[in-house]
Design goal:
By secondary structure, the chain is mostly beta strands. It is 3% helix and 71% strand. It contains 1 helix and 13 strands; from the N terminus they run βαββββββββββββ. A 10-stranded antiparallel barrel has the order 2-5-6-7-8-9-10-11-12-13. The protein starts with a strand and ends with a strand. This is Outer membrane protein.
Length: 243
Amino acid sequence: MKKLPIAVTASLLAFAPVASADVLGFGASVGYWDSDLSGEASRGNDQVDVENDLNLSNNDEINLSAYLEHPIPLLPNVRLSYVRIDQEGRGQLSTSFDVLPSGVNVSSQLDWTQADLTLYYEVLDNWVNLDLGLTARNLDAELVVQEVNSTAVSRTEVDAVLPMLYAAARFDLPLTGLSVGAHGNVIGYDGDSIYDYDAYAQYQFVGVQLRAGYRQMTVDYEDGDDRLDVDIAGPFVSAGFSF
C-alpha cells in the first residue's frame, strides 16, 4: 500500500472553506454503472492490454452513496460512497506477461472496490449549489490472469488510501424538479493520478431522486512492481431519496 506524503495531505486540508447547511438533511441512493474498461496493467516491465488482450466485460456492479448535512458552523458535512466493479473475460495474449508466454489463451477477472469518505462544505445553496471538500478513498483492485487449462497465473494488485480533492455543482430549474450537475474527485502526485468525475440530469419529486448520466474514472497508479493505467467509463442510472 502506498500513501501520500504528509506535506501533500496537509496542503490539501488547508483549502477547506468555512460554511454550513441551513437545515439538517439526509439522503441515500443506489445505482448501476454500465462501465467499459480500457488501458493497460503492468507487472515490472511487462504490460497487458486489458481490453484487446483480455476482453474484460462488465459482470457485476453496485454503487451506493449516502450523505448527511447539518447547520453546525465549522463542522463539515459527510458523504459516503462505495463502488464495486467485477469484470471477467477470455482472450489471447499478444505479448508475454509476467509468468505467461505470448500467444496463450487466458481467462481473466478484475475485482475492483473503492470506499470514499468525503468531508465537504456548502459554498452555495440555492438554485445554484456548490460543494467543496476532501475525500479519503480506500482503493483495492486485483487483476487475475490465468492461462487456460494451466495453473500458470499472474496477479496484479493495487491497494491504496488516497486523499482527493472533491467538488460538486448542481443547477436547479425552479418549479420543475429538474436539475443538471456534476461532481468529481481528483488527485495527482509523484507520477500517479486519479480523475473520477460524472455529469448527470436529475428529476426529483416528493423526496425521490432519479438520476442518469455519464461517469469516467481515469487511474494511473503504481503500487510496488504493479501498475494500473486504465480508464473505466460509461453511462449510469441511480434512484434515491432525500429529506
